[in-house]
Amino acid sequence: MAELVQSKPDDEISDLIARVRESQGDEIGVVIPRDSRAFQTPLNARLLRQFSKQSGRQTSIVSDDPRVQQLARMSGFRTFASVPAFERGLELTSATAPPTGAQC
User: Fold this and answer.
1) pTM of the model as a whole
2) N or C: which terminal CB in the chain sees fewer CB atoms within 10 Å?
């Protein structure tokens, strides 16, 4: 079963990776709030992706923030708009994602 890991708005990428490392599951949904510091740059996304691959975890990003969604998709993460969507496997694709700048 998939496990959810909650990011806090003031987390750094090292805090987020530590939470994923402490999780018990092989399938992780990382819930990222709007304006999260941990997931603002492509470098941070790549660091999380690299850790996930090296540790053998299937990591997905869960966020209602279109900027986070776009960055996650560009970095190769499965991306979900909400926790219920993650739990149901309703993954965002570029065709279903809201346009950049759209309000959710």
Assistant:
1) 0.86
2) N
Cβ atoms of 80 and 91 closer than 8 Å: yes
Distance CA 65, CA 81 (A): 8
Q: What confidence tier does 102 reach under pLDDT thresholds 50, 70, 90?
A: very low
Sheet holding 3-6, edge to edge: 3-6, 27-31, 58-62, 78-80
Q: Hey, what long-range contacts does 96-100 have (CB within 8 A, 24 or more apart)?
A: 97/66, 97/69, 97/70, 97/73, 98/66, 98/69, 99/66, 100/66, 100/67, 100/70
